[in-house]
Write a structure and sequence with these properties.
Shape: globular
CATH topology of the largest domain: Beta Polymerase, domain 2
Distance between the termini: 82 Å
CATH superfamily of the largest domain: Beta Polymerase, domain 2
Helix content: 40-55%
Strand order of the largest sheet: 1-8-3-6
Radius of gyration: 28 Å
Number of helices: 25
Number of strands: 21
CATH architecture of the largest domain: 2-Layer Sandwich
Structural class: alpha+beta
Number of domains: 4
Length: about 625
């Protein structure tokens, strides 16, 4: 690299967002850039004229004027102009005039667009401004939390702007590169017999072809990524963003069932505004120790507060907050494997309880387990998985997810077993139900794989659903156990409050409010073979399957949302006051309106509990 290019690289690397780009990108970027000089008073950019460069001011300064000569901005060393033009089909909107003799570094439009497509931080810095920002203001302003809700309400299929550009695996690298150029895309989906078999990106062309001087006549199956990660059109944009962040990829294929529907890029997501929760998740994957992870998790109360204040539903809040604990768990598993070496046999780390259901509201205790492949040998492999479980559970505890008081954790030997043992556990619990078995059933029937060989967990869940659906005696026992969680409502619709102790004259919005509905949804899901784990999704599926009547399901969904949101607003209020959030609320803290609606919600739950008791003769 000659001296001029080195100087250019060293200069731009001092300024945002170039300072966030990888070193190898900064090393190569100056070779694509130009430099230009402007005398004081000269017009650098004119309204309505073509502007195909991002200008970075090396020395001097400029001012930006509207077409009617109104001063809009003054810029100096290290600042950039030409952004509005680049985002407007390379047509300048305003006039830029040199305030003094100035030197500019010029980044071509093609490279500007490539950097926006490949690097989230670059795209975010140069996100569209102007009219779109004014629309946000007119609509009340888009907060960070509002963006999270947008991503939780937008489906992946709604973000696909064009039909997928596909190519066969036997096409040559040269043919693929030509197709990408002609279609102006940064990736190709590789299909065979209409099935997705791979993906090829412009990064593959640079890193695998050009850098290694590969023969351009070779087939692209030599350089593509086979069997890429993909999601369905019905997944939410938030899930897409988390998947891309977790896997550190910039292109994610989207399918509609078995058919290829399109591809989502980082740019698609950044243009919808990234979210604070996803930034936390992104930071989690960069942390290398317990302290670094704990620093990120400490932000959850702020995330929760912002979500509540933005009017999010309890379903969305639970999903977003749980994404942070999922990412923390995955990162701890990754760090454990780095420390201990590759796992000797396949395994999956699973969450149970509220994390499994995507219903966490804050940082609580942990419920987890490990399912091991049946090739597991205690004598050969036991120490590895014992150490892995200890590392992850200790790390979760350091992050604030405290050790489970009942020891329902992978670090407990009983909950770190091969698949055949887990199958034996559930068979015993379902076929010979007793109080302790029912307790374990309630915990582990809400099970979700987090990291590892997902198929191990899915095989176990299939067995659980089949056995539970066939065993009415077991379900009857589950109903009896669920009815021990009763809403705090007396015969005359008066609140039944705790007497004495720390929570005198309060009620528990978790165990006597949310949990009874969680129990109802779980039992009906087991009865009907519904695979959903999240309570809201279970109730919706039960409504569709007519396990619950239309009116009953709607009333229960409304009740669940009102109770859950009341609990979350209570916790948000405590966070504002600097108080550790809890689940205990005094009726006096509610308005007359809220008290009456809470009584109505509790009444709905009690009515459905009575109906269940009648059906199961309890």
């Amino acid at each position: 690299m000659d001296i001029e290019l080195i100087e250019m690289r060293d200069f731009i690397s001092q300024y945002h967002p170039f300072d966030l780009l990888p070193k190898e990108v900064l090393d190569n970027l100056p070779s694509t850039m130009q430099s230009s000089y402007a005398r004081k008073g000269s017009v650098v950019v004119e309204p309505g004229k073509s502007c195909k460069f991002l200008y970075i001011i090396r020395t001097g300064g400029v001012e930006t004027l509207s077409p009617d000569d109104q001063l809009l901005a003054r810029l100096g060393e290290g600042e950039a102009f030409g952004v509005h033009a680049m985002l407007n089909d390379c047509t300048a909107l305003n006039k830029v005039v040199a305030l003094e003799d100035s030197l500019f570094y010029m980044l071509p439009y093609e490279d500007f667009e490539r950097l926006r497509a490949e690097y989230t931080q670059f795209a975010y810095f140069f996100a569209p401004l102007g009219a779109s920002r004014l629309r946000d203001v007119r609509s009340g302003g888009a907060t960070t939390a509002d963006s999270q809700l947008d991503l939780m309400s937008t489906k992946a299929g709604d973000m696909l702007g064009r039909a997928p550009i596909t190519i066969g695996p036997n096409a040559t690298i040269k043919e693929a590169a030509g197709l990408m150029r002609d279609e102006r895309v940064s990736c190709l989906l590789v299909t065979e017999n209409d099935q997705l078999v791979g993906i090829m990106t412009d990064r593959d062309l640079r890193n695998r072809v050009v850098a290694n001087a590969m023969d351009y006549t070779l087939p692209i199956n030599e350089i593509m990524t086979p069997n890429p990660i993909s999601l369905d059109v019905h997944n939410y944009a938030f899930d897409v963003l988390l998947a891309m962040t977790r896997a550190n990829i910039r292109h994610l294929p989207i399918k509609n069932g078995d058919d290829v529907a399109g591809v989502i890029t980082n740019t698609n997501l950044v243009q919808r505004q990234t979210t604070s929760a996803v930034y936390l998740v992104g930071d989690i994957y960069k942390r290398e120790d317990y302290a670094g992870l704990a620093e990120i998790v400490a932000n959850i109360p702020k995330v929760l507060l912002h979500l509540v204040e933005s009017g999010a539903s309890s379903h969305n809040i639970g999903h977003i907050v749980t994404s942070v604990s999922d990412a923390t768990t995955i990162r701890l598993v990754q760090l454990a494997e780095q420390k201990l070496g590759p796992p000797p046999v396949p395994y999956v780390w699973c969450a149970s309880g509220s994390q499994a259901r995507h219903e966490q509201t804050g940082v609580g205790d942990q419920d987890n387990c490990i399912i091991l492949d049946d090739s597991y040998d205690e004598a050969k492999h036991g120490e590895y998985y014992k150490e892995l479980a200890k590392f992850v559970c200790d790390g979760l505890n350091e992050c604030g997810y405290i050790y489970c008081p009942g020891e329902i954790m992978a670090v407990t030997d009983k909950w770190r077993q091969p698949l055949k043992t887990w199958k034996r556990y559930f068979s015993s619990w379902i076929e010979e139900p007793e109080p302790k078995a029912l307790m374990h059933s309630c915990i582990f029937f809400d099970l979700r794989p987090i990291a590892g060989e997902m198929g191990l967990c899915e095989e176990l869940i299939t067995l659980i659903q089949a056995k539970a659906q066939k065993n009415s005696i077991f379900r009857s026992m589950m109903v009896g156990n669920a009815l021990t969680h009763s809403p705090p409502l007396g015969f005359f619709k008066n609140f039944v409050l705790i007497r004495g102790g720390e929570h005198d004259h309060q009620f528990d919005l978790k165990h006597t409010g949310v949990v009874p509905i969680v129990d109802i949804a779980r039992i009906y899901a087991l009865e009907s073979g519904i695979g959903a784990v999240n309570t809201y999704e279970r109730l919706m599926a039960e409504k569709e399957a007519k396990v619950l009547s239309e009116d009953g399901a709607r009333d229960l969904l409304d009740s669940y949302e009102f109770i859950a949101i009341t609990r979350l607003e209570h916790q948000a209020s405590q966070i504002r006051q600097g108080i550790m959030p809890d689940n205990f609320m005094a009726p006096d803290d509610l308005s007359h309106f809220e008290r009456n609606h809470l009584k109505d919600a509790f009444s709905v739950v009690k009515t459905i509990q009575s109906a269940m008791a009648s059906v199961y003769n309890i």
